[in-house]
Write a structure and sequence with these properties.
Number of strands: 4
CATH class: Alpha Beta
CATH superfamily: Glutaredoxin
Helix content: 10-25%
Oligomer: single chain
Strand content: 15-25%
Mean pLDDT: 90
Strand order of the largest sheet: 2-1-3-4
Shape: globular
CATH architecture: 3-Layer(aba) Sandwich
Low-confidence stretches: 1-7
Length: 116
C-alpha cells in the first residue's frame, strides 16, 4: 500500500525541452535560429557528462512552446526555468550550471513577458 503523503518521485531529476517548431507561413519560429543544433549539442553534452538516463537528465524535442518572441527557447523541469539561448556556448553553460549543478543561468533566462 502506498502512503499518499509520501513525496512523488520523478523518473528524471531534470527534463529539458527544446522548441524545434518550424513555421511555413513566414512567422518567426525557433527552428529559424538553430534550435535543432542546440538540441543536438545539449543531448551530446549531457551524454558526455554522464548525466543522461533515469534518475538523471532527459533531453527532449518539443513542438511550439508558445514563447516565439523569445526564441529559440528551452525549458527545464521540474523547476520550470525558461531559457533563451544564442549559441553552443550558452547550451554548454546550461548543461554545466543547471543540468549538472542545479544552478540557474540567470543571464539566459527568458524575460517573463515574452510570449508568442
Amino acid at each position: 500500500m502506498t502512503d499518499a503523503t509520501a513525496p512523488q518521485s520523478s523518473y528524471y531529476e531534470r527534463h529539458i525541452f527544446f522548441c524545434l517548431n518550424e513555421r511555413t507561413n513566414g512567422e518567426a519560429c525557433c527552428a529559424q535560429f538553430q534550435a535543432q543544433a542546440a538540441f543536438d549539442r545539449c543531448k551530446q553534452q549531457v551524454k558526455a557528462a554522464g548525466l543522461a538516463g533515469p534518475g538523471k537528465v532527459r533531453v527532449n524535442k518539443a513542438g511550439c512552446l508558445d514563447r516565439c518572441a523569445a526564441g529559440p527557447v528551452a525549458v527545464v523541469y521540474p523547476e520550470a526555468v525558461w531559457y533563451s539561448f544564442v549559441d553552443v556556448q550558452d547550451i554548454d553553460e546550461i548543461v554545466e550550471s543547471h543540468l549538472k549543478n542545479g544552478k540557474v543561468v540567470e543571464r539566459l533566462l527568458t524575460p517573463p513577458h515574452l510570449g508568442r
